[in-house]
UniProtKB/TrEMBL annotation:
Post-translational modification: Topaquinone (TPQ) is generated by copper-dependent autoxidation of a specific tyrosyl residue.
Domain Copper amine oxidase N2-terminal: start-end pairs: 75-143
Protein name per UniProt: Amine oxidase
GO molecular function, one term: quinone binding
Co-factor note (free text): Contains 1 topaquinone per subunit.
Transmembrane spans: 7-26
Pfam families associated with the record: Cu_amine_oxid, Cu_amine_oxidN2, Cu_amine_oxidN3
Assigned GO CC terms: plasma membrane
GO biological process: amine metabolic process
Obligatory cofactor(s): Cu cation
InterPro entries: Cu_Am_Ox_Cu-bd (IPR049947), Cu_amine_oxidase (IPR000269), Cu_amine_oxidase_C (IPR015798), Cu_amine_oxidase_C_sf (IPR036460), Cu_amine_oxidase_N-reg (IPR016182), Cu_amine_oxidase_N2 (IPR015800), Cu_amine_oxidase_N3 (IPR015802)
Length: 752
């Protein structure tokens, strides 16, 4: 052995100990907290102007209600305890001013439009019961109201078209438990162990077969967690059309594939032993298989996103500023999330983008399921916007925004039902790696701003997103989750779905979602243009004896509404866009393209007596002239009277010219859901997503994202580890900080 070797080994060991000590010490130190960088100052004028679209504040709601209570000269009962024979305030929401009035204010220095509310009242205590809509203003201190019902709908609104209040559901449930079920005590006790607390109801809609009907099937379930998957086989048809609750009656009863005149006949037949009973195992309170409680213990934490230098967006009142984007947001009581005055690089590209309706058509061999066509706007997509759970429904560090709605117990209901966040989508928005001729890499992370709301309407949960990309594109997307629909499995049930548990048939249903997109591309006046591709046969100029099939561009201006109404299964041009009256640097009309992602099938046969109420679903895309008297594609009153619909979208399309006009695109996206075993306990969002994209098409002279501060570019000759050349190389310094995560809070059960 070399005499110096022990000393060398000893010295080496000392160095290793020193290095390991440094590493361990450095790991033990707490990283610095992330510090927010100053935001780009937002012009206060834009944020102030956006208040023209703002939802009502709680104070405004209270003042509107007090004004109506003191000004109408009739007694108004709280909706939470109103009987059908009472007068009550059903809803209060903001009334958006006319577009021309708003644009004069936003763009031409005109006066600020009067701030007003829209109140829907049920007048049951009148000689001629009816629904009346009032515009109330000016806010914040109301001094007038005007009846707008006839102007909006062309006539009075019959009382039977009213949406059911929560109080009416409670009254029907009480009728079933105290009156109807009292006629079948033996059957209920021996078959269901009934004691009035162990059942839950789900209602069908629409409610009958002709105008004026108010007959609803009430499907009986075990009252456990996830009760939607626990049908017991009993369904009751209640006639609740009379304004006198004492006149309500059972019209039909269904049990395990058989129909009975009423509960008395059901009881008599059971006592005589002439009913085939299918006893359902009593489910525990947590629902057993229907429980969404995790079946595994927490383990390693899932990945989190954070903003090392703070949010790169700002929110002031109802106005959002993100990089080149700005817009106003709101939450309609009926239709949910909506955006106004959407601008990119300071130029308005859309006046309004909003959800219009969510339709579900069910199939089953049970009466409640087979007769159900839910129009969720009637129940209230915004009304049932769900409180959001931080870190699951939206990223933990998202901004959570409180929204307010007027609840039926005459007080504003508050919930954090809207979130806004920037999301790194984990893929490049664009990139290129060059290893030919010159050697370089250029790319841009796909980081986008997301505005989200989630509505829980019965068993359905809809995740509504509007997404803003750095290249000037906007995406509208909905993801469906929640519980599958179900019926009691009997007879030929497997023709209408899949068996998902012992007695549970997951029933087939369609989803159709309708959006309103009021694009203003380069100004209010636009035309609709279609581009596509066709093959042309030509001889090769350099070899005339050879033939080439080459694609060529096809162009067509769609001049009328009829030409711009694309039926669900018709062939639609692959590039269809709103064209401005201005051109870009290269001589092309500036435009925004509409691109739809949908798997929709037939909504309902057009021969159906109720099809006109949902005629918007005939079209994957329909472009019409914008009219103040056509603000929405449907009405909340269509649900309970689809046979004489209050609003018929098909009537919007009457072959008017749409060249150089203010235009609106009505977009329908949808999918088919056949519940299967993997929908137990819950349907997942994966694969259940549809929507649309609005993409600039020659709107700019080049891709606007090239001006993003997030871009990365370096060549083979540069030192790409230097921060001034490659900002990603700086992440160990700029992003090595601990994000500030606020404490977890959730107030979603306070207003339940």
């Amino acid at each position: 052995m070399h005499p110096k070797l022990p000393y060398v080994l000893l010295a080496g060991a000392g160095v290793m100990v020193f290095i390991l000590s440094c590493v361990l010490l450095s790991r033990g130190k707490r990283s610095a907290s992330c510090e927010s960088q100053p935001h780009i100052a937002e012009k206060s004028g834009l944020a102030s102007q956006s208040l023209v679209f703002a939802d009502l504040s709680p104070e405004e709601m209270v003042r509107v209600v007090r004004y109506l209570q003191g000004s109408l000269g009739v007694q108004l009962v709280d909706a939470s305890r109103a009987k059908p024979s009472d007068n009550c305030i059903a809803s209060v929401d903001v009334h958006i001013p006319a577009k021309a009035e708003v644009l004069r204010f936003l763009d031409a220095g005109g006066p600020r439009p009067s701030r007003e509310a829209l109140a829907v009242l049920y007048f049951g205590n009148q000689a001629e019961p009816n629904i009346t809509e009032y515009v109330v203003g000016p806010l914040p201190v109301p001094g007038y109201h005007r009846d707008v019902t006839v102007r909006k709908y062309g006539g009075k609104l019959p009382y039977h078209r009213r949406a059911m209040l929560h109080s009416e559901y409670e009254q029907v449930a009480a009728f079933l438990k105290t009156m109807a079920f009292a006629a079948a005590p033996t059957f209920l006790k021996e078959v269901f162990e009934y004691d009035s607390t162990k059942i839950a109801f789900q209602t069908s809609a629409p409610r009958g077969f002709r105008s004026g009907d108010r007959k609803s099937w009430f499907i009986v379930f075990q009252n456990v967690s996830g009760f939607f998957l626990h049908p017991v086989g009993l369904e009751v048809l209640v006639d609740h059309s009379s304004l006198d609750i004492s006149q309500w009656a059972v019209s039909r009863v269904f049990y395990n594939g058989q129909y009975y005149r009423d509960m008395v006949q059901l009881e008599s037949t059971y006592v005589q032993g002439r009913i085939r009973v299918e006893k359902v195992r009593k489910a525990p309170q947590d629902g057993d298989f229907s429980s969404v409680k995790p079946r595994a213990s927490p383990a390693a934490l899932f990945p989190l996103q954070y903003e090392p230098q703070g949010p790169r967006y700002s929110i002031r009142n109802n106005h959002v500023l993100f990089q080149a984007w700005s817009f106003a947001f709101g939450m309609s009581l009926n239709t949910g999330l909506r955006l106004f005055d959407i601008r990119h690089k300071g130029e308005r590209v859309a006046y309004e983008i909003s959800v219009q309706e969510a339709l579900s058509v069910y199939g089953s061999n049970s009466p409640g399921g087979m007769s159900t066509r839910y129009m969720d706007g009637s129940f209230g997509i915004g009304r049932y916007a769900s409180p959001l759970v931080r870190g699951v429904d939206c990223p933990y560090s998202a901004t959570y925004v409180d929204t307010y709605s007027w609840s039926e117990n005459l007080k504003p209901s508050k919930k954090a039902s809207l979130c806004i966040f920037e999301q790194n989508l984990g893929s490049p928005l664009r990139r290129h790696y060059s290893n030919l001729q010159s050697l370089y890499y250029g790319g841009l992370v796909n980081s986008a701003l997301v505005v989200r709301s989630i509505a829980t309407v019965g068993n359905h949960d809809y995740v509504w997103d509007f997404i803003f990309y750095q290249n000037g594109a906007i995406e509208g997307k909905v993801q469906a989750t929640g519980y599958a629909s179900s019926s009691f499995l009997h007879g030929d049930g497997l023709r209408y779905g899949n068996r998902v548990w012992e007695h549970t048939l997951g029933t087939i249903r369609t989803h159709s979602i309708n959006y309103k997109v009021d694009l203003d591309v380069g100004g209010v006046k636009n035309s609709l243009v279609a581009h596509d591709m066709a093959f042309e046969m030509t001889r090769a100029p350099w070899s005339p004896e050879q033939q080439i099939e080459r694609p060529r561009l096809t162009k067509k201006v769609l001049d009328t509404e009829d030409q711009a109404a694309f039926r669900l299964h018709s062939k639609m041009p692959r590039y269809i866009y709103f064209a401005a009256n201005s051109k870009n640097k290269w001589g092309h009309q500036r435009g925004y393209r509409i691109q739809i992602t949908s798997f929709a099938g037939d909504h309902i046969p057009e021969a159906s007596s109720m099809e006109r109420a949902i005629s918007w679903a005939r079209y994957q895309l329909a472009v019409t002239r914008r009219k103040e008297e056509e603000p929405t594609s449907t009405s909340i009153y269509n649900q309970n009277d689809p046979w004489t619909p209050t609003v018929v979208f098909a009537d919007f399309i009457n072959n008017e010219t749409i060249t150089n006009e203010d235009l609106v695109a009505w977009i329908t996206a949808g999918f088919l859901h056949i519940p299967h075993s993997e929908d137990i306990p819950n349907t997942v969002t994966v694969g259940n997503s549809v929507g649309f994209l609005l993409r600039p098409y020659n709107f700019y002279d080049l891709d606007p994202s090239i001006f993003s501060h997030d871009g990365v570019f370096f060549t083979s000759e540069q030192d790409f580890t230097r921060c001034d050349i490659n900002p990603v190389a700086c992440l160990p310094q700029t992003a090595s900080c601990l994000p500030h995560f606020p404490p977890f809070t959730f107030d979603g059960f306070q207003n339940s």
